[in-house]
TrEMBL record:
GO CC term, one of those recorded: nucleus
Ranges of residues in domain SET: 23-260
Lineage: Eukaryota, Fungi, Dikarya, Ascomycota, Pezizomycotina
Organism of derivation: Diplogelasinospora grovesii
Gene3D superfamilies recorded: set domain protein methyltransferase, domain 1
UniProt name for this protein: SET domain-containing protein
Length: 495
């Protein structure tokens, strides 16, 4: 669907009509980040002040959150049917349905069969049609992410978006007006759904009272590691953008906020389409899979209840990596260690999977196996298993990152319609690869120290149970070797 654009010069008229006030700032084209907010005069605030200047005020009625979607459904009976059939599962899902309908309305020149226009119908026309997040990258650009944590994440997201769109299509096909407008006339496609998801992800805010929301005009403010403004809700529930205390903004300078300083580079790229090295946390999240030959793998996944992951974060000085992976502990314990699954029949006939650890019901504590194994007699061995699993997973990821073939790319020259990756995608992916490689290498080194048998002072290897366990393994191995040697002798005899 082609969404008609409105020039940014028309935004002041739209804001006036909708009671949004701008004080000494305007939305304008920036050099590198699309539209942004620019100061129209020199502004400054004292360090210790509560009386900070307000730059933008947006009425509560324009805040697009789950209540706003509900209110809209009260005015529009047809949308109510669509929301009841395909919505009410998440704030994001309801807002996407609302945006889908507004986009469909905005793209129609004739009187629509369904849907009631509201301020968002027009506002959407000011928003960019090109959003640099990886779910909207081309095939060639996605190849640049091979071996990074985003490789699997972007693929999984695209599959999830396709499934979501199919579900909306399916559940609304029985409602005549939406069936005609959305599906028979093919007014919207999967591509539109992916674009709306990207718009939502890159522009939604977490407000203190209104929760997850989109706010017109505040969503025109770009990010900086040294932000000069922040958003909040005032006593009238209006959303306000205010200057930070102790800042100076010169005439013509961009006003910025922080999109958060605890997000990983992958998260920044995934949500916003850029990485700011000055404000990202040195962290990395990798998916983890149970051992393929573990007969309890399925039960462990069901009992764990969420996708297994490894979270890693590197210290500020870059020398150590901390990791967390509650599933890795569950993954590494077995029946002989005291793990048991039982299926219990409830009085209402339903069946429930229960998890037992050393005869204690720990069904509600499956993410706690780290602490749970502490009291086990072979706790050090179990921790050694876990450390080895994590180390191997990091090594596999590092190998994939190192050996995945990155095409020798030439950036897309402006104005040329070829399929080469865009320069911003190349730069962002190279930065992501560099950061993730550093975290993986440091993580592997930290784990190597833990599991290394070379340094006897190290915690795991110094544990007497581990030494005894490895000693028994060595004896078993040498018994096996002796047995094989004597078999060979036998074979020699036969020959
Ligand atoms: C909330 S919107 C801000 C307004 C946006 N620039 C526009 O043209 O509508 C967030 C998007 O702005 C861009 N952006 C914001 N801050 C940026 C930065 N520091 N560097 C690069 N792009 C940035 C990214 O494309 C991001 O997805």
């Amino acid at each position: 669907m082609s969404r008609p654009d409105l020039p940014i010069e028309a935004l002041p008229a739209w804001t006036l009509l909708n009671d949004i006030t701008f004080h000494d700032v305007k939305v304008a084209e920036t050099e590198e980040s699309g539209y942004g907010l620019v100061s129209e005069r020199n502004l400054s605030t004292q360090e210790e002040t509560f009386d900070v200047p307000t730059l933008i005020t947006v009425p509560h009625s324009l805040v697009l959150n789950v209540e706003c979607v509900e209110e809209y459904a009260k005015e529009d009976r047809n949308f109510r049917q669509l929301l009841d059939a395909a919505g009410h599962q998440s704030t994001r899902g309801d807002i996407l349905l609302f945006l889908l309908v507004q986009t469909a309305l905005a793209s129609r020149s004739s009187q629509p069969a369904a849907g009631v226009s509201n301020p968002w119908t027009e506002y959407l026309k000011f928003l960019p049609a090109i959003i640099p997040v990886p779910t909207l990258w081309t095939e060639d650009e996605l190849h640049l992410l091979r071996g990074t944590s985003l490789e699997a994440a972007v693929g999984a997201k695209l599959s999830a978006l396709e499934a979501e769109f199919d579900a909306v299509r399916e559940s609304s096909s029985g409602i005549p007006c939406w069936n005609e407008m959305l599906w028979v006339e093919n007014t919207v496609s999967l591509g539109d759904w992916i674009l709306l998801d990207a718009l939502y992800r890159s522009r939604c805010l977490e407000l203190p009272r209104s929760g997850e929301s989109m706010v017109p005009c505040i969503d025109m403010v770009n990010h900086s590691a040294s932000p000069t403004a922040y958003y909040d809700e005032n006593s009238k529930d209006e959303v306000v953008l205010s200057m930070r205390p102790g800042t100076n903004i010169f005439k013509g300078q961009e006003v910025t906020i922080s999109y958060g300083d605890t997000k990983s580079p992958a998260e920044m790229l995934f949500s916003y389409g850029f990485i700011d090295p000055g404000s990202t946390a040195q962290s990395l999240v990798l998916p983890l899979e149970p051992f393929p030959d573990d007969p309890l793998a399925k039960a462990k996944l069901v009992a764990f209840g969420e996708p297994p992951k490894i979270h890693m974060s590197r210290s500020k000085d870059g020398t150590t990596v901390d990791w967390k992976s509650p599933f890795a502990y569950l993954m590494c314990v077995n029946e002989e260690d005291g793990l048991e699954f039982r299926v219990l029949q409830e009085t209402d006939g339903s069946r429930q999977l229960r998890v037992f650890w050393q005869d204690q019901d720990v069904t509600t504590r499956t993410t706690d196996f780290g602490p749970l194994i502490q009291s086990h007699q072979l706790s050090a061995i179990l921790r050694l298993r876990v450390a080895t699993v994590i180390q191997q997973r990091l090594q596999d990821q590092l190998d994939r990152l190192t050996f995945s073939h990155i095409p020798d790319v030439q950036p897309l020259a402006a104005g040329y319609g070829n399929s080469s990756p865009r320069e911003a995608c190349i730069e962002a992916s190279l930065l992501l690869r560099e950061v993730e490689r550093g975290i993986l290498e440091t993580g592997i080194q930290s784990l190597e120290k833990q599991v290394s048998a070379v340094d006897p002072s190290l915690e795991l290897m110094a544990d007497e149970n581990v030494v005894a366990y490895l000693g028994s393994m060595e004896t078993a191995e040498s018994d096996l070797a002796n047995q094989e040697a004597s078999n060979e002798e036998d074979e020699d005899d036969f020959s």
